[in-house]
User: Fold these one by one.
Assistant:
Number 1:
Amino acid sequence: MLTTVHTPVGQPATAGRFCNTGYGPSLMPLDIGHPDWMAILGPETAFWSLVRRERLADALADPELLLESYRERRPEFQAEMDQLRFGLQPSAVYFNATDRCNLDCTYCYIPGDLRRHGAHMSGDQLLQALARLKEYFATSMGETTRKPRIIFHGAEPLLNRAAIFPGIDAFHDDFQFGIQTNSTLLDAEAIDFLTTRAVSIGLSLDGPEAAVTDRTRTAWNGDSVHAAVLRSLERLADYPALSVITTVTTANLDRLLPLVDLLHEMKVPACLLNPVRCTLPGARTVKPDDRALATALIAALERTHVLYRASGRKLIVANYANILLAILAPTARRLMCDISPCGGGRAFFAVAASGDLFPCSEFIGLEAFRGGNLFQDGIANALQSAPFKLVTGRDVERFAPCNTCAIRHYCGSPCPAEAHEMNGAMERTGAFCALYEELVRHAFRVIADGREGDFLWEGWDAGTTTLFAL
């Protein structure tokens, strides 16, 4: 017997699960909460099909209708998923050119002492680091016209702009650069420098008004930074490589709709509505429960759709768009958090101001996950180190409850840093299991209604091929 997988928001993710047995392949129905449609999933391969509710029994009972067709193509689907999960090579770096930050955000994943007293990477060291990264990628990426990405991250990178900007100029032809900044130091001169060199710019904003932003994001002395972000958004209006990261916490959960309105009004093309990462204890003090978070995020997503239909201009919520892509075109997904193993140490890695190498920025500050040093040990050695292997070896097929979950390859049980630090081991779920279930259900409802293109970048399907249609 197959049972419908349906876990109400806020209940344990294992509730109502059915573990497939036998030699398979097995297909699993999923109630997506749509009045007319159900999903049928092949969890091992991320295969899916939508079936009208009244035809569900027919689809499962008639082997020629679905199962035999799936069986024929299953090796192809499995090979594609295996390549995505185990065959990637790093093509991006999160580069912390300084440990320091001029803000003291409640949920920051970098320890406070490091943000207060940490080091700047010198200009000479930064140029040397970029040269070593160039040499590594020239070998690892092979023959390709695609440039590796360097995202200056933090901490606050503009505290060390004296080193970063010459590095961008020196290696402009070798890397696609980006910068994630809290905006307090993003003056007109910096904006001119970055935009004339087509550097992608990410800003951080947690609320539609200062009273909300200031609950979790202020300077060390408590001063507000909200107005500085708005000034930068005004200056960057219509810049195509602009994005905004919002960290969703209990402090702003009830203000996501006006925040979406503000970002759309200010012509922000893309944002991330990221659930707070609970790696360090401070972040857990502002962690929403799954029920409230799912309700608020889905309402915000639907608000972006209303705004798009009214104006013809999209505000892409990139972390949700990535879930849609995980379903529609798995290898086209742009973010690598919601896949297992995640992108840390596989699709990207992080460089600290000391040159220390970590699987992801989320691990900076966790000495146990230091895999080596860029200047002393080299990149290839770090990628094969025990700390990196601990992250790249995290496979949801190997631990409960994820190994029986119907949506395990749309979710990936993020995040390994969160699972390890908050829940005690890599072989455990992250902080928001039920949330991802509801976001996947919502994504299937959007697909069933034919609205998926409204939530995705224009041209998202360019170069994709339909492998299965029923």
Note: The two ends are 24 Å apart (CA to CA).
Number 2:
Amino acid sequence: MPLAASDFRGRYGPWALVTGAAGGLGQAFARALGARGLNLVLSDLEAEPLEAVARAVEADHGVATRPLALDLTQPACAETAGALAAELELGLLVNNAGVSHIGRFADLPLDAHLQGLELHGRAAVTLTHILVQPMRRRGRGGVLFVSSGSAAVHSPWVAHYAATKAYQLALAEALYEELRHEGVDAMALVAGLTRTETLLRAGLDVGRAGVLLSEPRFVAERTLDALGSGPSFEPNLVDRLSTLVVGRWLPRRFALRLVRRSFERLFPRIAAQRDAGDP
């Protein structure tokens, strides 16, 4: 049963930190949390779109916002998180900031892989470790990791992205069991295909995606409703069935081939990169 807005604010407020909040799922989470009455620290790289989101949330929901233009992969991330934790009662962390690069692992630049490793790994762990300490002392709060369906099926063509998201999924599920006895909810959002600018720029064929494609608002709302109910959550029923079949039931060799072909169908530019001799 989803919490009422006042109960949600009492459990996860009065402030939340959302990373990668300037667009896509991060913006959807910011708007959904504002509607639930939480004040927001919103983080992203670019100040202008971030401030536009902050102004819109304030105008629509009457909450306070603090836009924070910050590169989470830099050492200053820890210092900034510590200062925020000392100043504000941050009851919810949404580890949403991320990067995705689609293509053959060996063809993508090493810097792109390392950027994903820093952002999905080091930055998320840094923020979680610092902000969860006062949550434990208060006996309430929540930490949400925005993982991916690729974490469960280990998707070719996004091999390193899938690996870093699998790390987040494993961390979130283990923390769920560690922290729930102290009143803190940890959960991984296992997001499927979501209509974001990042995916559209990557060349997603929206028509072929069909029922696999979810809207950011739907994903954010369903996920916040489910927070505290378990270690991980897939908002799209089709994604849940796909993960069950491909991730658990099918033999791994067959499952990996099926996922590869699905990516090639959904992203036509990937199909163009296939080796002529690939089966």
Note: The chain has 13 helices and seven strands.
